[in-house]
Amino acid sequence: MEFNATLLGQAITFAILVWFTMKFVWPPLTNMMDERAKRIADGLAAAERGKQDLEAAEKRAGDELRKAKQQATEIVMAAEKRASQIVEEAKETARTEGARLVAEAKSDIDQEVLRAKETLREHVSSLAVAGAEKILRHEIDKAKHAELLASIKAEF
């Protein structure tokens, strides 16, 4: 094999090309690839963080939903309890009002009984006076007098 100047020139040119490529071309290419790898890694990390944030948000949403359901159940139970309290209060009010009305009616009945008794007394006294008048109109006879008193007693 013969080495000549062409082979030596090609070797020097190749060495200059390798040096030029390593000095001026390779570093920007390496930087671009590193930046792209970094952007891809950042994007993957952001996607992972987003996925974790989504899972955390779903968990928080589930917790909030459970809390809201629990609060709604508590509110419904409180409303039912209050409704039963209102019903009981209404029943008690009705009982009290009924008792008051019954007492009022009894009082009215007692007053009516007293008025009836008073009317009856007046009636009896007027009958007694009428009987006395009849007795006095007739001749005074003990037998007739006793007979009239007995008939008046029998009327009552």
From TrEMBL:
Primary localization: membrane
Matching Pfam families: ATP-synt_B (PF00430)
Membrane topology: Single-pass membrane protein
Classification via InterPro entries: ATP_synth_B-like_membr_sf, ATP_synth_b/b'su_bac/chlpt, ATP_synth_F0_bsu_bac, ATP_synthase_B_chain
This protein's name: ATP synthase subunit b
Primary role: Component of the F(0) channel, it forms part of the peripheral stalk, linking F(1) to F(0). The b'-subunit is a diverged and duplicated form of b found in plants and photosynthetic bacteria.
Gene3D superfamilies in alphabetical order: F1F0 ATP synthase subunit B, membrane domain
Keywords: ATP synthesis, Cell inner membrane, Cell membrane, CF(0), Hydrogen ion transport, Ion transport, Membrane, Transmembrane, Transmembrane helix, Transport
Residue spans crossing the bilayer: 6-26
Annotated CDD domains: ATP-synt_Fo_b
Places the protein is found: Cell membrane; Endomembrane system
